[in-house]
Amino acid sequence: MLIFEKAQDYAPNVAIIDHGVRYTYSQLLDQSVCIAELLLQHRTTSSIQVAFMVNPGFDYVAVQWGIWRAGAMAVPLCLTYPLPSLIYVLEDAQVGQVVVSPEYAPLLWDYCVAAGILLHVVGECTFPEIVELPIVTPEHPALMLYTSGTTSNPKGVVLTHDNLNAQMEHLISVWQWTSSDHIICVLPLHHVHGVVNVVGCALYAGARLSFLPQFSTKELFRSFVEDGLTLFMAVPTIYYKLIAYWEGLPEAEQLALTVAMKKFRLMVCGSAALPVTTMEKWKRISGHTLLERYGMTEIGMAISNPYEGERRSGYIGEPLHGVEVRLVDEEEQPVPSGTMGEIHVRGRNVFRQYWRRPEQTEESFTTEGWFKTGDMAVVEDGYYRITGRSSVDIIKSGGYKLSALEIEEVLRTYPGIADVAVVGIPDDEWGEKVMAALVIKDDVDLEAVNTWIRGLMAAYKTPKKYIVVDELPRNAMGKVVKNEVKPLFNTNQES
Q1: Higher per-residue pLDDT: 254 or 427
Q2: DSSP code of 275?
Q3: What average pLDDT does the chain have?
Q4: Domain end point (choices 102, 117, 136)
């Protein structure tokens, strides 16, 4: 496994900083061997999947690496899942052993005993005599990450060691990772963004990796100033929180943070669409144009704005070297530039299968081996721009395909709108109508918002009826009482 070979080259260097303690690559390798030997003592031929529910830090990586060195497939569990959700993953993945941090043992103990699953508690393990570690090939299953399950129960995405190697090699090359880099992880470690883009790439490159176990804007900004970080990666929500916190600081503290952030060489955003307004605000306070990229659990990263060169707001960039990307219509035929189509991806980075779901696996690939992402995009001057998820964000109204994401961006340009979400709702005449939920800033007059929306609709020549409500009435459970919604303005005429 290449990541272990590379770790040997950086053996004396600091690999991980966890609660102020520095761990070298050598210590990480040694501890992973101990974990592997423990798992091999209890391994059965019928189940080589090992789940782990371990807090972010040195132990998390040591356990993950130990599972791999034992020749097993690692199944990271979400730390905030309730017991029924954890049981679903453990049963679906056919897990034989589970490794947990001490605080999670009471949650899983009774179930594991009843299910015949061996539970190991970090810090309480008794390590056996040295055993021979198996030979693990690049095609061996390495990682199973569960998708969000928007249309059905979550599915286990099986990634091989070769898939992971390809994903990390692509990003290390395009984002110019080196062993001199230092990154802090604030992302959950049961998703590809945190597992591969941050933790995997950092250790594959021989860099230094710090952890922030619990998200705190104050503590994160402290790390920005004091810890000599060179990279940062997060999701739009985190950048939004950081901006809001920064704006509430005294001017002197704002300046100190801005000076510290300008020293970073790269800041990346992904996992969800980044509003252009958020991107522009972050540039003003940090000096960085966030690098947006595109990926998903099944493929890792496939498209990225350049490290050097123009980073376009609202665009995800160009295909990574070694990754094939195309856009197709509903008949799976390539579409011309400037035309919306579904993103298809092919390459070493693409996953092997959905665990125990052969039919869904087959349906997700074309006969030529292209993975059908379900995401829609257009190519404009060589750069890809996401228009939405085909099943969620593409609204089919009056024979046209409308992007909910594009409509949201237009509505966000009004300074009185704090946030917005756009969806399509069924309609007999139009097929689907556009519905927008707006979060209005406290000091904004709703009548002014109504006037602006009417002008916007006239400018875009959209003959739609709409209402603006003052506040949605809710019952004792917090649910909207639909039949009690009273419009503040009701515009029934065609606009």
Answers
A1: 254
A2: P
A3: 88
A4: 136
Closest CA to 60 of 20, 24, 100, 21: 100
pTM: 0.82
* Spatial separation of the C-alpha atoms in residues 424 and 431, rounded to whole Å: 9
**CB-count burial class (<10 Å; 0-12, 13-18, 19+) for 400:** exposed
Average pLDDT over residues 444-464: 72
CA distance 378 to 44: 49
Is residue 430 included in any domain, yes or no? Answer: yes
Residue 263 is assigned to a structural domain of this protein: no
Task: For the chain, state the CA radius of gyration.
Answer: 24
Nearest-angstrom CA–CA distance, 39 and 27 = 19
Domain with 43, as residue range(s), is 2-136
Q: Is the dihedral of CA 137, 358, 143, 267 positive or negative?
A: positive
Does residue 440 form part of some domain?
yes
The CATH code of the domain that includes 60 is 3.40.50.980
Bridge partners, residue 120, by sequence: 99
Gap between the Cα atoms of 181 and 162, Å rounded: 24
The answer as to whether 356 is a domain residue is no
Q: What tokens appear for 30 in the block?
A: 């040694």
Structure-token match 């340009």, residue found: 413
User: Could you tell me which of 391, 352, 408 has the C-alpha nearest to residue 145?
Assistant: 352
The two structure tokens encoding residue 32: 């992973």
Q: Could you give the count of Cα atoms lying within 13 Å of 103 in the half-sphere of its Cβ?
A: 4
pLDDT tens across 281-314, in order? Answer: 999 999 999 999 999 999 999 999 999 999 998 8
- How far apart CA 88 and CA 115 sit, in angstroms, is 12
447 sits in which H/E element: helix 446-459
- Helices 2-9 and 161-174, packing angle to 10 deg: 50
Among 136, 163, 187, the domain-final residue is 136
CATH of the domain at 435: 3.30.300.30
pLDDT at 487 > cutoff 60: no
What the block records as the tokens of 13 is: 């260097």
Number of domains present in the structure of the chain: 2
